[in-house]
Amino acid sequence: MRLHKLAIIILALYSAGCQRPTQPLRVHPENPRYFLYQNRPAILVGSTEHYGAVLNLDFDFFPYFEELQKYGLNLTRTFTGVYCEHPEAFNITMNTLAPDSGKLICPWARSDVPGYYNGGNKFDLTRWDEAYFTRLRDFITQAGRRGVIVELVLFCTYYGDEQWNLSPLNSINNINHIGSEGRDAVLTLQDSALTKVQEEMVRKIVTELNGFDNLYYEICNEPYFESVTDEWQRHIAQVIKETERELPKKHLIARNIANNAARIEDPDPNVDIFNFHYAASAAVDWNYFLNKPIGDDETGFAGTHDEPYRLEGWNFFLSGGALYDHLDYSFTVQHENGTYKFPDSQPGGGGSALREQFKNMKTFVEGLDFIHMKPAQSVLKGGVPENLAGRLMADSGRVYAGYFYRKSDQVQNISLRWTGRITAPESGEYIFYPFTDDGVRLWIDGKLLVDDWTSHAPKENSGRVFMTAGKTVDFRMDYFQGAGGAVADLFWQGPGLEKGEIAQQYFPQKEGGGGLLLEWFDDTELQNFKAKTVVKNISFNGSLDLFFLSSKATEKLSPVLDVPAGRYRVEWVNPLTGTIEKMKSIRHDGGDLKLDAPEFDVDVALRVKSEK
């Protein structure tokens, strides 16, 4: 008996020693447009808090990961701490990327010299903060235990002095007198001392985290704003590659390309993943030839409703995308389980209902042999009404997957005008804060308070005017949206009023009730009038559906697919619930196959599999 037990122990030890080392997330060897993780084909789907989970010491990431695991989500995105935000930045309430005074942790240790911009001591860029690296490793460990991949974003564009004033790389915040040339120089190669610090940080992080499998690096968040150079981004990618050359594991590198979509003309050979924000299907279509994963790793500026983000995700995956990460504002400090009830003014959405919808999407795609599928719009021969759009992927003769959804009217190159009247509750000075991406002009009582008719990232302007209690005056706000993100909100502050949304009661209409006339123009200069409606206040977040379009698909969907002869199982799936709404098996003689969809309000998915 003892000899038998000893033999079992020796065999177990031998087997353990012969196990192959695990590999980090990598591109799939058979289809490098997707991923391989733990020896299985993978797509990545996430619902991420606002990137402060590591750098904000108040954020407890344990319940956050439990919530992701609950819905089978397998991606999160987080920043390193080189960049953080002011609590009111981008009109975000309970912003996890805006830690309270003394609660920012980053790669560098604090010195004994007071004077950091947000309270506490300045940073010493020659010393590492080991507590930071302990927290970072713990974050990735807890993610891995729950099957979650971490996209670690090394740097971020400094959109304005507000963000730059909070950075440890700013000379006002470190004792090393590094970073004195201003934010326009920080993500370039023009300041050699600063570049050296950045290189050392990247090498330290990459070395510390080399043992993890559930990890990849993104060079810089939204480098297409401000003054981030291509040369600098390529340099950082090269530093990652060179550092890992002598290390056991090699991790993927991602580069953030653009909002919406863009053609990648000169790809960096060191980059493995190309990410977009608020991505359209064109981001995949235009870059499919690269034969690399295309990602949509930030959503937002389409309102707080679930529908735009569900449509964005399904459309992206059924176009051939490999990863989708939603920016979920229901995760905050003290609400790490995703229960924060965010205001309507938040620049994006989130919540448990939406995470359930992402689970349905992920389950649908993972149920396909997506490694052997590719976009197949040419297979779709007709039967899609004008008010709907459709995407189709296929492995011809074996499996077909489609997604059909109600179109949104184009929100690129449009303009909007809100007009009406406004009444002040008390006499005094009022400050109006339009928050827009892109241009805005605001008049109160015929006085131009704000004039910023330029293309720009989400930005808050302000204008002041004296108003008399009970006196109703003319109101007008013009806005244009060029390309990329789209948002237009208006807030005010005055006697007895904290900064906030203007209630409908302060916009009296001549005909009674409250609200503003909203006019929509099919150009950026308010010339080509298209439609008008009455709204209660100013809150536009990327979608015209809420104002102008029907919520119903008014025409019957009967797509026609060109498929070979055979026997097929046809299933229509409700993306909202994940349930199969209609199913049947058919025998087809080859050629055009007409399929009748069930009735639906917004979107529907189609799965056709061979029954050979």
Mean pLDDT: 92
Shape descriptor reads globular
**Number of individual domains:** 3
Based on CA atoms alone, the radius of gyration comes out at 26 Å
Please tally the β strands and state the result: 34
Portion in strands = 25-35%
CATH-scheme architecture of the largest domain:
Alpha-Beta Barrel
Low-confidence stretches: 1-19
Largest sheet: 8 strands, parallel
Q: Helix- and strand-based class?
A: alpha+beta
CATH fold-level name of the largest domain: TIM Barrel
CATH superfamily of the largest domain: Glycosidases
What's the end-to-end separation, in Å?
52 Å
CATH structural class of the largest domain = Alpha Beta
Continuous helix count:
11
Strand order of the largest sheet: 4-13-12-11-10-9-8-5
Percent of residues in helices: 10-25%
